[in-house]
Design brief:
Elements: E1 5-8, E2 11-13, H1 32-39, E3 46-47, H2 60-78, H3 88-102, E4 111-114, H4 116-128, E5 134-139, H5 143-150, E6 155-162, E7 165-166, H6 168-177, E8 180-185, H7 199-210, E9 215-219, E10 243-248, E11 260-263, H8 266-280, H9 285-297, H10 300-325, E12 331-332, E13 340-344, H11 351-360, E14 363-364, E15 366-367, E16 380-384, H12 390-408
Parallel strand pairs: 3-14, 5-6, 5-8, 8-9, 9-10
Antiparallel strand pairs: 1-2, 4-11, 6-7, 10-11, 12-13, 13-16, 15-16
C-alpha cells in the first residue's frame, strides 16, 4: 500500500492510486476560457480574453438595498427552501417582459429559474441527449455549450455561420440525413462571432426546422444588448412548439447572482423540472427574491440602456483602433450588440502563437480554435470589449497589432 508523502503542513499526496472515471469525462473538454483566465490574473495584463460584463455597470448600491429590504421584510422565508420552478412573481416578470420586448405569449408555468444560463444547457443535455445522439451547433459555436453537451457524448454536426446567420443549405442537409435532437444557436450577438441572424434568416431556419422533429435551442443571453434597441423576432414566434429559449440576468444585472432561466413548452418543462430536482432541488432562492425586489424598485430599461450605450461606445473605440493599427490582411466582425468581436488572421498566422506572444506584451486574447467542434479556427481570435476602459482598449489593441504584424512577417 502506498504511503502518504508530506508536502507541507496539513497536506499529503497519495501516490500510486488509480481512479476509474466515467468514459464521458475523457470526452468533455476543460473550459479553455477558465484556464486562460488563470494566466490573466496578473493586474499588469490588459485582458480581452474573458466575457465579463463591465464591473462599473453593476448597480451595487441598489442591489444592496434590495437585499436589505428582502431580509428585513421576509428574511425567514427568503432563506428557506423553495419550489423547484422558482419564485413565481419573478417568473411572471420574465413572462411579461417577453410580451413587452418580443410580443411573445409566455406563461410563467413555461419558465424555470436556473443557476445561470449555463445550467439551462446542462439540463437540456440531460433531458435530450443520449450517447451517440445527434446535435447540431453553429460553427464557430459557444464554448460553454460545447462543454455542457459534450458531457452526454453526442455526435456533433457543425453548421457554418455567415454574416446573416447559419447556412440554411447545410442545416437542411444535416437534418435531412441525421436524426438531430436539436440545433443550438445564439441568434443575437452570437458568442464568439458577434453575428446577429437577420430577420429573413430566422424565418428560413424556422421553416427548415418546422418540417422536422428537431428542436431549436435559442440562447438569448445577449438579446437585451442590441445597440440599436430594436429586437429581432424569436424563433418561438414561428415554431413555438419546437423552440426552447434560455435567458440570463448575468449580462443585465450581475453575473455573481447566478440567475438564468429556460422557457419551454409544458411537456418539455415537466422533464426539465425533474432534471433540476435531481441536480440541486432549486436555484438560490435569496438571489431570486433580491433580483425581483430590484426589478420592482428600479427601472431595468433605464439600466439596460446605460449598458447598451457604454458597450456601444467601447465597441466603436475597439473597431476604430483595429482599423487604425491592424494589418489590412486581418478581418474582423462589426457586431450589432453583445460583448465580442471575432478576428480572422491570415491563414499562415497561428492564433495560439499570437496569444503566447501577446501575453509577453501584457495583453490577453482568446484563441478561436476551442470554438470549433470539428477542428479549425487556428487563425481566429475572440476579443471582448465590454470589460475594458477606452484607454485600455487603445493600449491593448496597439500592443496586439504589433504582435500580429510580427507574426505576419515571420
Amino acid at each position: 500500500m502506498s504511503q502518504p508523502i508530506p508536502t507541507g503542513p496539513g497536506q499529503h499526496q497519495v501516490t500510486g492510486r488509480k481512479y476509474t472515471f466515467a468514459p464521458r469525462m475523457a470526452k468533455t473538454p476543460k473550459s479553455f476560457i477558465r484556464e486562460i483566465l488563470k494566466v490573466t490574473e496578473d493586474p499588469r495584463i490588459i485582458s480581452f480574453a474573458g466575457g465579463l460584463p463591465s464591473p462599473a455597470l453593476i448597480d451595487v448600491d441598489n442591489i444592496a438595498a434590495a437585499a436589505a429590504s428582502v431580509l428585513a421584510k421576509d428574511g425567514q422565508v427568503a432563506l428557506q427552501y423553495s419550489t423547484t420552478e422558482g419564485y413565481r412573481p419573478l417568473r411572471q416578470f420574465i413572462a411579461d417582459r417577453y410580451k413587452k420586448r418580443l410580443g411573445l405569449e409566455v406563461s410563467p408555468d413555461e419558465i424555470l429559474i436556473t443557476n445561470g444560463s449555463q445550467q439551462c444547457l446542462d439540463l437540456i443535455g440531460k433531458v435530450f441527449i443520449g450517447t451517440g445522439d445527434h446535435v447540431a451547433m453553429e460553427r464557430p459555436g459557444y464554448l460553454g455549450a460545447i462543454q455542457a453537451f459534450s458531457l452526454f457524448e453526442p455526435i456533433f454536426h457543425p453548421v457554418i455561420l455567415h454574416e446573416d446567420g447559419p447556412d440554411p443549405v447545410q442545416l437542411a442537409h444535416t437534418i435531412r440525413n441525421y436524426p438531430v435532437r436539436f440545433f443550438y444557436g445564439i441568434p443575437n450577438s452570437q458568442n464568439p462571432s458577434g453575428i446577429t441572424y437577420s430577420a429573413e434568416r430566422r424565418m428560413e431556419i424556422a421553416g427548415i426546422l418546422e418540417k422536422s422533429e428537431t428542436l431549436f435551442i435559442e440562447d438569448d443571453a445577449y438579446g437585451e444588448l442590441n445597440f440599436n434597441g430594436k429586437s429581432l423576432p424569436s424563433l418561438r414566434q414561428y415554431i413555438p412548439d419546437q423552440t426552447i429559449i434560455t435567458g440570463s440576468f448575468s449580462k443585465i444585472l450581475a453575473p455573481g447572482m447566478r440567475m438564468g432561466w429556460v422557457v419551454a413548452p409544458l411537456p418539455i418543462m415537466e422533464q426539465l423540472v425533474v432534471a433540476k430536482q435531481a441536480s440541486d432541488l432549486h436555484s438560490n432562492y435569496l438571489s431570486q427574491r433580491i433580483a425581483f425586489e430590484y426589478l420592482q424598485t428600479q427601472n431595468i430599461d433605464t439600466h439596460i440602456e446605460k449598458i447598451r450605450a457604454s458597450y456601444c461606445h467601447q465597441r466603436d473605440v475597439m473597431l476604430s483602433c483595429m482599423a487604425e493599427f491592424f494589418p489590412d490582411t486581418v478581418l474582423f466582425t462589426r457586431p450589432q450588440g453583445g460583448m465580442f468581436i471575432w478576428v480572422t488572421l491570415p491563414e499562415s498566422v497561428s492564433s495560439m502563437a499570437v496569444f503566447d506572444a501577446a501575453i509577453k506584451e501584457n495583453v490577453a486574447v482568446l484563441p478561436g480554435s476551442p470554438f470549433y467542434i470539428d477542428g479549425g479556427g487556428n487563425n481566429t481570435l475572440r476579443i471582448n470589449f465590454s470589460n475594458s476602459t477606452e484607454e485600455k482598449i487603445r493600449t491593448g489593441i496597439e500592443r496586439l497589432a504589433s504582435v500580429i504584424k510580427k507574426q505576419c512577417n515571420q
